[in-house]
Amino acid sequence: MEEVTYQGLTFEPYIKRDEIAAQVQRLAGEIKRDYADEAPLFLCVLNGSFIFAADLFRACDIHDAEITFVRFKSYQGMASTGQVEQVMGLTEDIAGRHVLIVEDIIDSGVTAHALRNELAKCNPASVKMVSLLFKPAALEVGSGPEYVGFEIPSKFILGYGLDLDGLARNLPDIYVLKQDKE
Ligand code: IMP
Ligand code: MG
Questions:
Q1: 62 CA to middle of ligand 2, Å?
Q2: Is 37 marked active-site?
Q3: Distance 126 CA to ligand 1 centre (A)
Q4: Is 47 in the pocket of ligand 1 (CB under 6 A)?
Q5: DSSP β-bridge partners for residue 180
Q6: Which among 44, 67, 106, 157 is least surrounded, fewest beta carbons within 10 Å?
């Protein structure tokens, strides 16, 4: 794996695709065990989560599972704006449903907190969250995800769905900003 460059910034290999795949399998095992009899509704938070959600949804292999999508935007460049903009809302009726929010990464927690508050108004049977990545030191509001792939330090990363202003989502591995690397 080589370094990659976006917008004049250099990123180094951080989490390889086989490590990601192993965590996706582990998470899928836990979710399958907890939701096998629940007909869960996976709620993929676009855009960043689409690749993780596709891999996780298939790996879970729950017969009565469904998936739907919402879209939020809070990041600009390499920092959270602190404001969550709902670009595409929920169209399904989630009353009585077991909802599993699928996130790529929890950073400040602002997006997750806003989404949980919105969902709570719709009387779901339960709401839990799975996030591939979690930066615990950056969390400002709410609690962390119930299911976590990797806990990482507060560094800027990209690849496997995560972007820098829309770029780098198609990298199969995850990279970290070079000067941010430990
Ligand atoms: P939060 O609201 O601060 O928790 O951030 C939520 C969203 O910001 C995530 O779902 C990502 O889309 C984006 N984000 C947070 N950290 C990173 C990062 O290191 N790289 C790329 N996107 C990130
Ligand atoms: Mg996201």
A1: 24
A2: no
A3: 24
A4: no
A5: none
A6: 67
The residue-averaged pLDDT of 48-74 equals 94
Whole-prediction pTM value?
0.93
Please give the full DSSP string across 60-79, using - where no structure is assigned.
Answer: H--TT-EEEEEEEEEEETTE
| pLDDT of the residue at 180 | 62
Of 87, 107, 163, best ligand 1 pocket probe by most atoms within 8 Å of the beta carbon? 107
| Atom of ligand 1 lying closest to residue 162 CA | 21
Q: Which two tokens stand for residue 139?
A: 């969390």
**DSSP E strands, the chain:** 4-6, 9-15, 41-46, 66-76, 79-88, 98-106, 126-134, 147-151, 157-158, 174-177
Element (H, E) at 44: strand 41-46
Residue pLDDT, tens place only, 81-120: 776 777 777 888 999 999 999 999 999 998 899 899 989 9
Residue keyed to tokens 């938070």: 45
Dist. CA 72–CA 155, nearest whole Å: 21
**Ion ligand 2: residues, Cβ under 5 Å:** 48, 104
Give the residue from 149, 142, 154, 146 showing the smallest Cα distance to 15: 149
Q: Is residue 182's pLDDT more than 60?
A: no
pLDDT in tens, 134-159: 999 999 999 899 999 999 999 999 99
The rounded Å distance from CA 35 to ligand 2 centre is 23
